[in-house]
Amino acid sequence: MRIKVRFDKLVRDKIVDQNLEIGGSVDFEKLEGRELEESLLHKLVYEEVPEIAESDGLEEIADGIDILYDLAAVRGFSRAELDAAAHAKRQERGGFLLGHFVYTVEVPIDSKLGRLYASDPDKFPEVKDE
Fold this sequence. Notes:
The chain is mainly α. Helices cover 53% and strands 0% of the residues.
């Protein structure tokens, strides 16, 4: 007796071989380039992030990290480069553990941050006082 199930998703690298090794059959294709990048993004946003939100466990966070490392690799960056970029950003701007949830910021328009905020109104919409 056998069972046939639908996946329709990107799976970890060893899943195909693990199914074949026990006498299973697997209908799959090998994604590369832009298709792989899009599938990694889809898996992260629509599968792993909700699983991380629903779980208190470490395994789901580890899955998300693996996807980010693989996404970096597809885009031509090594794990070391990703780790270095994350470290540099943490050194310059900090992490998120302090829990600062910012509602608005007001800074001089001619400051470095003022110019940054003004240059991207989609990300930083200006608040007009009433």
